[in-house]
């Protein structure tokens, strides 16, 4: 390692050691010493506020409170100070006897959450989380009073997971609001939210949610083990966690489900799965995950089972089309045109008459053009994005066909493919399917049926080999689990889905004979 | 005590070298693996061979072959019944020592290597002749071997699950061929029955025996991974051979009744002729590509299992712990051998009809019987050891 890098590393080590020493210090009765340590640790940061006061109005008991402006609610802080300065005078008749932190907490502070702290580390963590740290001269301990009060985004409908029937609320960036959404839906005392902090610098709050008597034995421990194993400076979004705990880190398949919908999380918990809430993101992770869940939508369960099942089948069709339609078209037109019915073959041939490119190139050009338009439409401000989509899809598409650069049939194929990919409810997995489409397309265009079969089966084998937190990714199709087929290809009526999925601890979900049986001859 | 430890080590080796220490296959998977192995070649090229030797009675020869297969698979089960955690190689090692175990591993390795010729012949002549006549031959070896090696690398669990999907595809394939062929079905083409007499028909069934031979050798290797192999191994094996026979007979009956045995006998890959002939209505005049897509999982599974079986045998021969290191080596060996066989059409057909039965049948019939005799003779020794 070069000398300058060694020096840099030594300096960083030294700074980290010093910080660790300061953090491990305990609060002392000397107020100034405590303030000096806090200053050394937090510096003179613009958002850090330091407010002096006199406990019980007594000049012998100077005190100071620390809080972060913007994170803490100033009204709460004012109420705390009022209690300490004004009301304290009545309670402590002997002004010479300094009250303990515990005494203040139990007799003066009416806040819902207040606790004493002895270690500097706890005090600093509280301040940077939005709580208020109170220190008084002569007091051996500090007081931490909850005063979190920053501006949250309101509860809105998730933009990427729309539904027609069902709840409209979505998660936001506050972990506590998000856990409350789920608690409102499941009032079972067995519902647990185990806290954890990840990220040495971001100190991101994480909650592991599960229903104690439903979750498979060992699953929560495994989730915790993986989360504890994360050594990272900061977690800025759930994607960080996802990539650090997934089973198949090199695979393009998503082995962890993510959602912004509380009803989806509640449903997953009731199936015996585990949800991971991460502060500062509306996206909650769910494990274990099965491939087929990406095809399922909440509407399947909110609409009647006939409708739910039909649209689920439509989505399966969309999955197949979005994955293989361009490859099959290219393969047939390039190598196996004798397989196309004659009338159709003639139509395709007449459309391709003026196109100077091979079919594979034509397909790749259109696919790439579509990806460009999609990406541009996504990044641009909304009104311009719509304009780009219209220009791209209508004007450029039409012009390309008229100029003889692409055949009309190819435009139709790619358009159907792209529409199908949008019919898949999980946006992240529809992106993965887009990635798979390209090797399939190239293999089909170069080697025909053989290329298609090889890439397709390599993908299938890979998907079969993947696990998500111990469960086979393609279950319950492979391995085939007969009991779980009630909610696989089609969605059976609710009154028939009397058992939870195979991996849940407690299987019974419904009582006996739940099929509605109205009295014969109408109501009496 | 030493002997006991040694025997435990042998069982453990049987499990670890097959990558099956944790995973146990279900009876459904076991049946599916057998059906996949038998079906591909049985409908692909065997029916043409049968038509050439026995005419319209090829469905009877298939049925007779199926019964013989059921007997042999039950013998295989009897060999392993009392020691269900052992495969043929481990059992042989227990019976007569390390070198006998290696010898049996070598015999099974030779069986699968020799069998790879007909398997690749089936694969290549289906895809190259009917779909990609201008593509170089090497491509038809590299592609399936790559997929096969990948599946083999993922282990027995993934292979067994793929076999289940393959079995579903086989059902769909049969449904499609029945729908597409019933219009031309003429039962008179199957008459007269037993025209060549029973003895000749029975002798012709030896050609189908070479197909179920794959399944008995599969059982010889994979049976220890079957859940409750000691109890259900026999029934499962019988169902596997029976189901394969019935699924194959659908093709032999259709080929005889729709194409006639004369036409069937003119083709190396007679099933493709039947598939080309099938049509649904007037718009869908040809859909053999859909059928070949359904056929591709079983055939790729077959290639995969051959790599797996030879790699496990090679692992035993060289005393290695895991078969993974042997996968690329055996893939190259199998590929080279298969290329040599398939490269020359006349050699390939001669090998299929003459050489391969001479290799397959003695091993398929002989090995289970030999081990059963040894087991009966040395049963006390085995019981003492366990």
UniProtKB/TrEMBL annotation, chain A:
InterPro entries: Spore_Ger (IPR004995), UPF0353/GerABKA_families (IPR050768). One of its GO terms (biological process) is spore germination. It comes from the Bacteria. The chain crosses the membrane at residues 274-295, 316-335, 394-416, 436-461. GO terms for cellular component: membrane. Keywords: Membrane, Transmembrane, Transmembrane helix. The keyword Nucleotide-binding does not apply. This is Spore germination protein KA. PANTHER family: LEUCINE ZIPPER PROTEIN 4 (PTHR22550:SF5), SPORE GERMINATION PROTEIN (PTHR22550). Belongs to the GerABKA family. It comes from Paenibacillus taihuensis.
Automatic annotation (TrEMBL), chain B:
Pfam families: Spore_permease. The chain crosses the membrane at residues 25-46, 58-80, 100-125, 137-156, 163-182, 202-223, 235-254, 292-314, 326-343, 355-378. One of its GO terms (cellular component) is membrane. Keywords: Germination, Membrane, Transmembrane, Transmembrane helix, Transport. It is a multi-pass membrane protein. GO terms for biological process: spore germination. It is found in: Membrane. Its main location: membrane. Belongs to the amino acid-polyamine-organocation (APC) superfamily. Spore germination protein (SGP) (TC 2.A.3.9) family. This is Spore germination protein (Amino acid permease). The lineage of its organism: Bacteria, Bacillati, Bacillota, Bacilli, Bacillales.
């Amino acid at each position: 390692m070069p000398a300058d890098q060694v020096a840099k590393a030594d300096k960083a080590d030294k700074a980290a050691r010093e910080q660790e020493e300061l953090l491990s210090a305990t609060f002392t009765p000397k107020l100034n010493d405590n303030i000096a340590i806090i200053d050394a640790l937090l510096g003179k940061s613009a958002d850090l506020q330091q407010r002096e006061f006199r406990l019980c109005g007594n000049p012998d008991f100077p005190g100071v409170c620390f809080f972060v402006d913007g994170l803490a609610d100033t009204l709460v802080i004012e109420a705390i100070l009022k209690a300490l300065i004004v009301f304290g005078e009545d309670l402590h008749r002997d002004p010479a006897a300094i009250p303990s932190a515990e005494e203040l907490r139990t007799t003066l502070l009416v806040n819902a959450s207040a606790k004493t702290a002895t270690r500097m580390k706890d005090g600093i963590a509280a301040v940077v989380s939005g709580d208020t740290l109170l220190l008084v001269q002569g007091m051996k301990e500090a007081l931490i009073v909850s005063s979190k009060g920053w501006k949250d985004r309101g509860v809105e409908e998730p933009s990427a997971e729309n539904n027609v029937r069902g709840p409209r609320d979505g998660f936001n960036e506050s972990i506590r609001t998000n856990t409350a959404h789920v608690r409102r839906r499941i009032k079972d005392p067995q519902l647990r939210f185990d806290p954890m902090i990840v990220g040495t610098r971001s100190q991101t709050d994480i909650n592991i949610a599960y229903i104690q008597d439903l979750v498979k034995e060992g699953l929560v421990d495994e989730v915790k083990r993986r989360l504890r194993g994360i050594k990272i400076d900061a977690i800025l979004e759930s994607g960080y966690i996802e990539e650090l705990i997934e089973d198949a880190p090199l695979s393009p398949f998503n082995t962890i489900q993510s959602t912004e919908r509380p009803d989806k999380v509640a449903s997953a918990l009731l199936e015996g799965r585990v949800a991971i809430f991460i502060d500062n993101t509306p996206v909650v992770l769910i494990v274990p995950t099965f491939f087929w869940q990406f095809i399922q939508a909440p509407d399947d369960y909110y609409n009647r089972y006939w409708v739910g099942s039909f649209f689920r089948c439509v989505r399966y069709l969309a999955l197949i089309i979005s994955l293989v339609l361009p490859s099959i078209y290219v393969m047939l037109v390039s190598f196996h045109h004798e397989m196309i019915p004659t009338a159709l073959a003639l139509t395709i041939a007449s459309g391709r008459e003026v196109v100077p490119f091979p079919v594979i190139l034509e397909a790749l050009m259109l696919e790439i053009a579509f990806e460009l338009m999609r990406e541009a439409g996504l990044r641009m401000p909304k009104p311009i994005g719509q304009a780009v989509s219209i220009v791209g899809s209508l004007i450029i598409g039409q012009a390309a066909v008229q100029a003889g650069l692409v055949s009309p049939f190819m435009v139709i194929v790619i358009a159907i493919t792209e529409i199908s990919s949008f019919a898949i409810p999980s946006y992240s997995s529809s992106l993965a399917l887009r990635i798979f489409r390209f090797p399939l397309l190239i293999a089909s265009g170069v080697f025909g049926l053989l290329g298609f079969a090889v890439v397709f089966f390599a993908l299938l084998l890979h998907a079969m080999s993947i696990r998500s937190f111990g469960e086979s990714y393609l279950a319950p199709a492979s391995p085939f689990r007969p009991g779980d087929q009630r909610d696989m290809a089609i969605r059976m009526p609710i009154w028939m889905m009397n058992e939870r999925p195979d991996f849940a601890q407690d299987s019974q979900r419904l009582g006996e004979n739940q099929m509605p049986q109205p009295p014969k001859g109408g109501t009496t | 005590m030493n002997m006991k430890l040694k025997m435990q080590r042998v069982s453990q080796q049987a499990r670890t070298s097959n990558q099956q220490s944790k995973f146990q296959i279900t009876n459904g998977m076991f049946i599916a693996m057998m059906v996949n192995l038998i079906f591909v070649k049985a409908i692909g090229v065997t029916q043409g061979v049968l038509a050439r030797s026995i005419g319209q009675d090829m469905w009877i020869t298939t049925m007779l072959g199926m019964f013989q297969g059921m007997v042999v698979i039950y013998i295989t089960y009897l060999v392993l019944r009392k020691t269900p955690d052992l495969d043929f190689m481990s059992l042989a090692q227990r019976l007569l020592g390390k070198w006998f175990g290696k010898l049996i591993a070598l015999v099974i390795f030779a069986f699968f290597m020799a069998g790879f010729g007909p398997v690749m012949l089936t694969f290549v002549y289906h895809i190259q002749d009917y779909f990609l006549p201008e593509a170089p031959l090497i491509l038809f070896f590299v592609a399936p071997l790559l997929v096969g090696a990948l599946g083999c690398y993922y282990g027995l669990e993934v292979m067994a699950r793929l076999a289940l999907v393959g079995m579903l595809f086989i059902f769909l394939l049969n449904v499609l061929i029945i729908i597409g062929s019933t219009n031309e079905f003429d039962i008179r083409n199957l008459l007269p029955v037993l025209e060549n007499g029973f003895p000749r028909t029975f002798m012709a069934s030896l050609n189908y025996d070479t197909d179920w031979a794959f399944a008995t050798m599969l059982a010889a290797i994979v049976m220890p991974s079957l859940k409750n192999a000691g109890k259900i191994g026999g029934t499962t094996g019988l169902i596997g051979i029976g189901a394969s026979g019935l699924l194959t007979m659908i093709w032999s009956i259709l080929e005889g009744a729709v194409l006639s045995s004369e036409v069937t006998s003119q083709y190396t890959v007679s099933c493709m002729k039947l598939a080309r002939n099938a049509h649904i209505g007037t718009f869908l005049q040809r859909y053999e590509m859909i059928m070949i897509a359904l056929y591709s999982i079983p055939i790729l599974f077959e290639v995969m299992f051959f790599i797996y079986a030879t790699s496990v045998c090679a692992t035993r021969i060289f005393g290695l712990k895991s078969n993974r290191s042997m996968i690329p080596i055996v893939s190259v060996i199998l590929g080279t051998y298969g290329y040599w066989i398939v490269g020359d059409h006349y050699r390939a057909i001669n090998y299929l009809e003459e050489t391969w039965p001479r290799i397959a049948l003695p091993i398929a019939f002989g090995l289970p019987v030999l081990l059963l005799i040894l087991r009966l003779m040395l049963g006390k020794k085995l019981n003492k050891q366990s």
